[in-house]
Amino acid sequence: HERPDVLVSGALHGDEIVGPLVTLELGRWLLRRQAAGDAWARRLVRTRRLLLLPLTNAVGFAQRTRRELQHDPNRDFPYDQEPSRCMKTVAARAVNELYRHHALQIVITYHAGMQAIGYNWGSFNYYHGVYASPDDNSMHDVAAQLSRFAGTGNVEKRRNYPFGPMSSSVY
Q1: Cβ(122)–Cβ(168) below 8 Å
Q2: Under a CB-based contact definition with an 8 Å cutoff, are residues 73 and 13 in contact?
Q3: d(CA 111, CA 23)
Q4: Which residues pair with 163 in a beta bridge?
Q5: What is the DSSP-derived secondary structure letter of residue 7?
Q6: Residue 126 scores a pLDDT above 60
Q7: Both ends of the chain: CA-CA distance in Å?
Q8: φ and ψ at 120, to 5 degrees?
Q9: DSSP for 47-82?
Q10: Closest CA to 116 of 97, 82, 144, 84
Q11: What is the pLDDT of residues 6-28, one digit of tens each?
Q12: Which residue, among 75, 106, 99, 83, has the nearest Cα to 13 in the 3D structure?
């Protein structure tokens, strides 16, 4: 495909309702801004293929629970576990297929429970030393820009959204 693919995902944890709302509002906002003649929104919509998945874990969302059929979809991928123990949920399989069939340039997944902009951390639990790839540096720069753009919101002490790798921001 000639346009970069961008995936926006909400409700990987079904009880985190901010994701579906933000994902749907993002789509609505972009379409309205484009129709109103906003050059930035028009360029974004015309030069990217936006894949919006508001209810990644539709079963969990409908049941108002984090899980899908007793499994946490966010832990249902072949990272740090035997492949036979993963891909038990429809949500994980759907996300897996999107990754397999699209050359995703960026993925944004909305979660709830804290205010932070976190990015992937790779397999640092297997690496003991200092490591920073060009991807790590670019993710840091993107997160810093997102933090500046988002501003303070309701973040404690009226500071911009904190950001960093998930391994130090969340876990």
Answers
A1: no
A2: yes
A3: 11
A4: 117
A5: E
A6: no
A7: 36
A8: -60, 155
A9: HSEEEEETTTTHHHHHHTSSSBTTB-GGG-SSSSS-
A10: 144
A11: 999 999 999 999 999 999 999 99
A12: 75
Residue predicted with more confidence, 15 or 129:
15
Confidence at residue 165, expressed as pLDDT on a 0 to 100 scale: 83
In this structure, are residues 51 and 6 in contact, taking their beta carbons and an 8 Å threshold?
yes
**pTM of structure:** 0.83
Q: Which residue in this structure is represented by tokens 């906003």?
A: 38
Give me the sheet containing 5-10, strands edge to edge: 49-53, 5-10, 104-110
Tens of pLDDT along 57-112?
999 999 999 999 899 999 998 877 888 899 999 999 999 999 999 989 889 999 98
Kindly state the helix (H) or strand (E) to which residue 40 belongs, with its residue range: helix 39-47
DSSP letter, residue 86: S
Distance CA 171, CA 165 (A): 9
